[in-house]
Fold this protein.
Amino acid sequence: MNLVILLAIPLSLATLLVGCKPSDGHSAKTTTSSAKAPPAKVVTENDLASIVLTPDAERRLGITTAPIEVKKVERSRALAGELLLPLGRAGNSSNSTASGNSIYSLLPAMTPAELVRVGQMQVEADGGVAAAQVELEAAKIALERAQTLVANSAGTQRAVDEARARMQLAEAAQRTARERRELLGAPLFDAVRKDVLWVRVSVYAGDLNHVNRDAPARVSRLGTNGRDSSQAARPVVVPFSPSAAPTTVELFYELDNIDGRFRPGEKVSVMVPLHGQVQSSVIPGSAVLYDIHGGSWVYENTAPQKYTRRRIEVRFVSDGSAVLTRGPTPGAKAVIAGAAELFGVEFGFGK
């Protein structure tokens, strides 16, 4: 009997390894039916981001929709900019540089350390002018004294000539000191306008002809992704604008900063205007939502009481409206009031 058991075990294993055909059709039917079933069901993002409300819930949330419109907007290009202290004649935005003072054509391209050095040079030049004035007054006194002595037969003509020569040298030194001081312009920090800043933008020289130099640019903080409204900046004419790269040209714009929103040295995003217009989708800024990762969204009314969250890309925000680079098709109904409430309902933060 033990021998029979030992022989039965290898035979069973051999049968399983060889894979004999089943004796009945039950297993075959099971295999055929499982092959027809799809291996997985793909759930799209739209199915995950849809909310269906009851009419009462829709009323309590105060949902309001408006169609996405297509409007003509000015062509522009996003570039990096830097905020600088404005220098030159205050109150003249069309020509903020002080013509005739060549230092003002160089100041916009200087670093803060170089600006401090310019201030030091101005102080030193002021001291040089004062010293030259003292030397000139002393030379005039010496000349008058020498002439008085000659008139009283107590001096010599040679002393008068020497005193006159010293006075002429003092006058020349005074003129040189004044010209040197005028070359440095008005006092640096007296010329700074506290209520405005300059925006410096580097533009590729090959694209300069496409830039509308007469139109204002739009300035916004970096990393806002269109959440903050951009601010207009007027073009500024600078006669000389050197650039570190030989293939770029520096453009300057004047930005109002009465509320102190921006600070000197801050890096900003600048929408530089180009010639021509393009068609873009526009929605009210209240319709745009932002997640914790900075992604921008809008809720679209896809069916009665059904709202689907769509991903969008905001080009910029101006006058309370968001200009879109990517988003739902024009004519789609976007939620312009109650979008934040829908966001809370979808993620469990609202009722």
